[in-house]
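Sample entry (426 residues):
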Amino acid sequence: MTLARKSLTIGIASALALAGLGAVWAEGEGKSGGSAVPIDASGSFEVSGVDVDVKGKDADAARYGGWRLAQRRGWEMLSRKLTGKASSMSDSALDSIVTGIVVEQEQIGPTRYIAKLSVLFDRNKAGGILGVSVAVNQSPPMLIVPLMYSGGSGLVFERDTAWARAWNRFKSGGSTLDYVRVQGNGPDSMLLNAGQTLRRGRNWWRSVLDQYGAADVLIAEVQLRREYPGGPIIGIFSASHGPDRQKIADFALRVDNGDSLDTLMDAGVQRLDKAYQQALALGLLHTDRLLATRPPAAKTEEEKPEDASTDAATPTPEASAAATGNSVNIQFDTPNVGSVNAGEAALRGIPGVRSAITSSLALGGISVMRVTYDGAIPGLRAQLEARGWSVQEGAGVLRIRRPSSTGPAQPIPAPTGTATATPNGG
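Predicted structure, serialized as tokens:
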């Protein structure tokens, strides 16, 4: 006998082929990282708690008959819920509108199949057959953050959790809440984690919500308590809204064994969704004014220089240079450290030079000095030549030399290959 909760998003015809091979997979098996269950955004009608007890010539025939019976009973329950009276359809017609079967619990024997199932019906097709409207007025997009505490640590998307999987397989098409659900891949574990749920800053939350196209945030929390390994599990659920975590509802659910963890989580999701829907109907899910407001400070700062430039006269290049200064790269010979200091001091002594700093040092070669000068480059060149420098001008670059630097008296270190000083001075 097996007790499990498995989701099969397949039709009965395909399910029969799988049953013949004895292959049934639970969602999320063999996956790691993020939420293992794809987000179910189909919006199908879900009818849960359909009990079946069927006998057959073998286990596969009994299971197939059980799923057939679940389709019929599920359709009767759905029609009674939407129209107030039960209706029936042929198996072939039901095959065309059933989108999946969820196995909540099942017991498989050699010739008998006992199970509790949920049946998923295509929303548009079922609504058209029953003559009911399937349109739902929903809230603004709400980012749902599934926070789970187990063993004393809080997890959202740092690791794959049963709580995140339950929210992703939840059929939200019939809810008045427009949930923005996250798979938990890429940067999700950094943007949405247990620490983020404790933040109150609206600017930070606004940046996070903009990443996911949401207008507000809902935090769904569960704390798991296990009496002993494999034994009963108690889940304490709470629903909160907004960065300040305004409490919406809280309750506790219990299952008798560890194998029913997914059942516990699914029941918690449905209860929390009902609580959120009720809060929305009562007007308790208004978006915080500070969270919804986009501050215009950045835009006005960008516009101020433009406004000022339109009011004032257009400055000439000489006036702009005088106001902000021109940056010039000056190449000069630096045979030793003293020549570096001497070159900087010489440039700083020229009127109009604001700063002169060596940006690229090459002792024994040509270094580069970054000079800020209040004026045009030709003016700087003229002042350098007036002080005895030999100047060559390029595109934003001046190459300067002292006339004496080419003579034999130039203080250049001894060339490579000559005798050098020894440690003992010999």
